[in-house]
Amino acid sequence: MSVWNPDNIKDVAESIGITSLNDDVLQALSSDIEYRLSQVLEEALKFMRHSRRMTLSTQDVAQALRILDIEPLYGYESTRPLRFGEASIGPGQPLFYVEDEEVDFEKLINAPLPKVPREISLTAHWLAVEGVQPSIPQNPTPADSRNQELVPKGPGANPNLAAISGSDNITVKPLVKHVLSKELQLYFANVCSAVLDENNDEYSVAALASIRTDPGLHQLVPYFVNFIAEKVTHNLKDLFVLTQTMQLTSALLDNKHLYVDPYIGSIVPSVLTCLVGRHLGSSPDPLANYPLRNIAAALLGSICKKFAKSSHTLKPRLARTCLKHFLDPTKPLGASYGGIIGLQAIGGTEVVRALILPNVKEYESLIREPLEDDASPKKAEAEAVLTALVGALQALEDDTLGMMKELQNGDNEYQREKLEEKVGSLVAGRVIEMGRPKFVKALLEA
User: Fold this and answer.
1) Quick one: pLDDT at residue 144?
2) Distances (CA, A) of 213 to 180, 203, 262, 313, 420
3) 10 Å Cβ neighbour count for 49?
């Protein structure tokens, strides 16, 4: 016996033109309808429970019908509550129906049009790479995080939300209004022109000295950082401009009154460009850019000493970059020179022992040919790179305890063989020629 009334099935059949149905057919259809309804309700209850609700909604039933591959019911997706009316068609036979909402066309026509929403646009960018947030305009900086505390709050703070709610005419003044005074603007313009003035050294020295000691320049720090990045990017062929920008960077870092921690991520790329750049300057002398690389290396070492504690990933990232330029055979010798002195400046003895010493013998093959060829245009650069290698390895001498007597002829040959096995013949020959037994001992024991 089915719970579903067979008379309902008979009424539906008569409405579509089927006047006679067998009682067995009615009973079978009633049982099937009951099974189908229970199946739909079970699936709908699953959606209700997963939504953590206690009331079954029409949306749950529609989702259940979609899961069971049944055409969904149309007209029941409204989020507003349905109002049911009751009509009587006979004694004891009430009929329930959904009341239609009456709409006044005059009010509808005269109502103001809603504001047109803005078009949706999407852009993709890297939020973090290997746990490190790139310094790109889309990502917030520590300075932006602090500035968020000063953002106006309230119903009219967000102009987009205010426009949607109709209260976009409300104006809220920010708590802090950052305005650069005319004195600071004039100071910034004069300092920038003085630093890049090739004809007046005293003017330039005075400007750098002012930046190094003046305690009231905290508002100009982001402007100077942007100025340095712009000049380095657009003047790679001008050694004077690059050198002066590095001097300006050094002056900013030396000023004890300035808080430059948030800007280190923007300063380091300019310093690395002057350290390991492929082509710096337009002079025919291949060694003309090496003093600039020395200044950049000293700056990099200063940055690591001052800011490594506040940024634990700073030194590893810089060491990785310098090591890459040191060992890459496709890079010019100037970039390799910058990588060597950069590694030494970043970590001193520890980095030399861990990253430079194990790779000296392998790197020797890159400079052997220009060193042995007197007509090679790269000989001067190869000589500078070899000198930088030996100079970096001398940092190991300070960690060697004890004194050694001067090498005799027999000891000399024995030490040379051991050194050649460890650092190659070129570096070994230079070290032996220096006649410093303590240095030899340091290399052999490292």
Assistant:
1) 64
2) 20, 16, 20, 29, 50
3) 11
| Locus of tokens 């209260």 | 167
Amino acid (one-letter) located at 277: G
- Mean pLDDT for 417-444 is 79
Q: What is the pTM of this model?
A: 0.58
The upper half-sphere exposure of residue 408, i.e. CA atoms within 13 Å in the direction of its Cβ, equals: 2
Q: For every residue of the chain, which 3-state class applies, written as one string?
A: CCCCCHHHHHHHHHHCCCCCCCHHHHHHHHHHHHHHHHHHHHHHHHHHHHCCCCCCCHHHHHHHHHHCCCCCCCCCCCCCCCCEEEEECCCCCEEEEECCCCCCHHHHHHCCCCCCCCCCCCCCCCCCECCECCCCCCCCCHHHHHHHHHCCCCCCCCHHHHHHHCCCCCCCCCCCCCCCCHHHHHHHHHHHHHHCCCCCHHHHHHHHHHHHHCCCCHHHHHHHHHHHHHHHHHCCCCHHHHHHHHHHHHHHHHCCCCCCHHHHHHHHHHHHHHHHCCCCCCCCCCCCCHHHHHHHHHHHHHHHHHHCCCCCCHHHHHHHHHHHHHHCCCCCHHHHHHHHHHHHHHHCHHHHHHHHHHHHHHHHHHHHHHHHCCCCCCHHHHHHHHHHHHHHHHHHHHHCCCCCCCCCHHHHHHHHHHHHHHHCHHHHHHHHHHCCHHHHHHHHHC
Percent of the chain with pLDDT over 90: 22
Contact 364, 329 (CB under 8 A): no
Tokens of 358: 């194990």
Mean pLDDT of 110-114: 88
Residues in CB range of 396: below 8 A, 6 or more apart: 349, 352, 353, 357, 439, 442, 443, 446
User: Alpha-carbon distance 222 to 262, whole Å?
Assistant: 10
CB hemisphere CA count around 230 (13 angstroms): 7
| Whole-angstrom distance, CA of residue 213 vs CA of residue 402 | 43
Residue type, 335: A
Cα dihedral sign for 430, 274, 245, 249? Answer: negative
Q: Report residue 245 as tokens.
A: 């920008």
